[in-house]
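Need residues for this backbone.
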């Protein structure tokens, strides 16, 4: 009924690792999200999002008030996943999404890996191409956030899920948005 022809389309298995589908979407012109209740953003130029079992999103009075006034008092950024705490350090253990304020223009992350690891970093917007960098020791990455971005940036190890070595340890030492420090604690 959508008038979309899928002749010649190939299937690609994406690791069940947080926002791994977002990273994979950068390789395609069209990203079709057909997962139940997914909030996975796309980096593809075009996107098709299936909504299954739509339901009314009822909110309590407190939630409605928080939505109405929350934006002006929200912090510069917040971690949406992909970071865990190990031995008191923030460790990136999968694709890490950082939600930033709509007026944010620059995100800086400082990463450390004693064994060396490749990472991808990008602002989330249609057609984005993640930049690949090698973290050998300590590395600072600056991610420009253009005005048309979707208010998110992503940092991800290249190797995910079962492909990632068990001893890999990618530490998120610092996160700043437009020069303002943001807590890297996953709590």
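Answer:
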């Amino acid at each position: 009924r959508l008038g979309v022809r899928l002749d010649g389309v190939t299937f690609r298995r994406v690791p069940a690792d947080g926002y791994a589908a977002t990273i994979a979407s950068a390789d395609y012109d069209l990203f079709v999200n057909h997962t139940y209740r997914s909030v996975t953003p796309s980096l593809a130029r075009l996107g098709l999002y299936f909504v299954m079992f739509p339901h009314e999103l009822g909110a309590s009075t407190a939630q409605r008030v928080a939505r109405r006034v929350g934006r002006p008092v929200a912090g510069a950024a917040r971690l949406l996943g992909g970071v865990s705490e190990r031995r008191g350090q923030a460790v990136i253990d999968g694709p890490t999404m950082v939600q930033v304020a709509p007026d944010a223009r620059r995100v800086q992350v400082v990463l450390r890996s004693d064994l060396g690891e490749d990472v991808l970093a990008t602002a989330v917007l249609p057609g984005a191409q993640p930049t690949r960098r090698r973290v050998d020791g300590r590395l600072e990455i600056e991610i420009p956030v253009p005005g048309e971005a979707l208010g998110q940036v992503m940092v991800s190890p290249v190797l995910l899920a079962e492909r990632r070595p068990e001893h890999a340890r990618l530490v998120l030492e610092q996160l700043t948005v437009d020069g303002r420090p943001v807590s890297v604690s996953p709590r």
